[in-house]
């Protein structure tokens, strides 16, 4: 971390570790810095350490080692209620015996605001999430989506600079979840608040975040903008976890600057960008995104790769066609093509040529 990073940091984890049993580390030497106003998502499978990091930042868990700072101030020993952090949980955590307005007023009462100021802030927060008419209702009288809006309003009502969200949309149906993704991002941008958001849903992470930290095995595997993560994954875990991805296995036979030759296990030889292979003889998984593969050779440059492929499945998905192929001995090679008037509907059993550009093909760890 450079001095400029530290000066600009609003939230900092410095060499943070966490163990529950004194032996196994669930978070391993985490260094992370967020500027003010950033929307950062911690993304990863169950048990990867992302929620533990959020809980340490909130104060519900204690770091075994290292320091967590907020606006330059160490907060390891500050209790949760004194950190001034808003929190939104998956299960909403609303008080069932209180009205919506009373739920929102509660954190303001704890902060000893007078009645008139409380009421003004409660109405402002409810209006922000389009729930202004529901102040008198109890949580049980609301739908899941409405309860989630109230939980979000309660996290924002005391105007915190930092809001933490732990799988907040996990209980909602797909359509409502997608709507709330844009809603939360819009509100965060408008208020200029810093958000740390935890999810295992990669679509959520890609659509909402300024940056995404991909966790696995207690470590950040890659920290980058959504497009950087998707287009330029640094290892095979990130390539597989973010979006759909094709992999072909083989051995590096030559490395020349920005390109390497890979002899696939099928015997085919292709060019790829050497990302984390270092020498001839390294085993590698070559990564190619489904939308980077072409059926139409006229769209490719002369230096494109072409391989024979057998069509196994052709699925109409509305805006796209999803074709599953057998390529170089792999039966799970997928190509996604736009639903356009010139798209030929491919029949299972047909043998075709497919191609892609060398720069779209990344030689990753095996």
Account of the 3D structure:
With 366 residues, the protein is an alpha+beta fold. It has nine helices and 19 strands. The chain has helices at residues 3-8, 50-58, 100-110, 115-128, 144-156, 174-191, 202-208, 226-231, 236-241, and strands at residues 9-19, 25-35, 39-43, 65-70, 73-74, 85-88, 162-166, 194-199, 211-216, 219-224, 246-256, 259-264, 269-274, 283-288, 305-316, 320-327, 330-338, 351-356, 362-365. The chain has a six-stranded mixed β-sheet, with helices on both faces. Strand 12 and strand 13 form a beta hairpin. Helix 3 (100-110) packs across helix 4 (115-128), helix 3 (100-110) packs parallel to helix 5 (144-156) and helix 4 crosses helix 5. The longest helix has 18 residues, at 174-191. The chain is globular.
Quaternary structure of the protein? single chain
The gyration radius over C-alpha positions equals 25 Å
Largest sheet: 6 strands, mixed
Number of helices: 9
- Proportion of helical residues: 10-25%
**Low-confidence runs:** 1-6
Backbone structural class: alpha+beta
Distance between the termini: 29 Å
